[in-house]
Design a protein that fits this description.
The protein has helices spanning 2-15, 161-169; strands at residues 29-30, 36-37, 54-59, 65-70, 75-79, 84-94, 111-119, 124-133, 139-144, 154-155. With 171 residues, the chain is mainly beta. The N and C termini lie far apart (71 Å).
Length: 171
């Protein structure tokens, strides 16, 4: 059994380009001082970017979910005496994923970017598109409700993200 473990170790060491034993890999380069430098791993980019257009709106009481709105995404849609609709995008970030209570039928995510419509006169909102991303900013799944007749306008109550979005967009 010990001999099999040794062969597995030897195989892994060989496949990794002898990095375990200080071998020189083609991706490592020597800098001017003669020391080996390792390539930098690019920083993780938040889905939607980190630009100045993102505005912090708030967080849940437990601090596990943060909501931001994309200023540059806010646009006016239908407007008449009874209806004043705005389109916008928000980003929700799960601060501590292993403590967040995910719905049972939803994949675990770090970022959720959604496109919404809000009727300011009637205090209702509608979800059009939602995209979930993992910790590395890689898309997990996309839900498109734009042509789904089962998705309807929802009234919102005070003290939730929809109320914060209403206050920011409509007031």
């Amino acid at each position: 059994m010990k001999q099999n473990a040794f062969y597995v170790f030897l195989l892994l060491a060989t496949l990794s380009g002898c990095a375990l034993f200080g071998g020189n890999s083609s991706s490592n380069t020597k800098n001017t001082s003669g020391k080996v430098s390792v390539p930098k791993v690019p920083a993780i980019q938040k889905p939607g970017g980190d630009g100045e257009s993102w505005r912090y709106l708030g967080t849940t009481n437990d601090g596990l979910l943060v909501d931001e709105i994309n200023d540059s995404s806010i646009s006016s849609g239908i407007s008449n005496k009874n209806t004043q609709i705005y389109n916008f995008q928000d980003r929700k970030t799960v601060v501590v994923p292993n403590k967040f209570d995910y719905p049972s039928d939803q994949p675990h995510f770090k970022y959720l970017i959604s496109n919404w419509q809000m009727d300011c006169n009637n205090k209702v909102y509608l979800l059009n598109v939602a995209t979930l991303y993992n910790e590395s900013g890689i898309k997990i799944i996309n839900y498109n409700y734009s042509n789904d007749s089962s998705v309807t306008w929802l009234k919102f109550s005070t003290g939730n993200f929809a109320q914060m979005q209403y206050d920011y967009i409509c007031l």
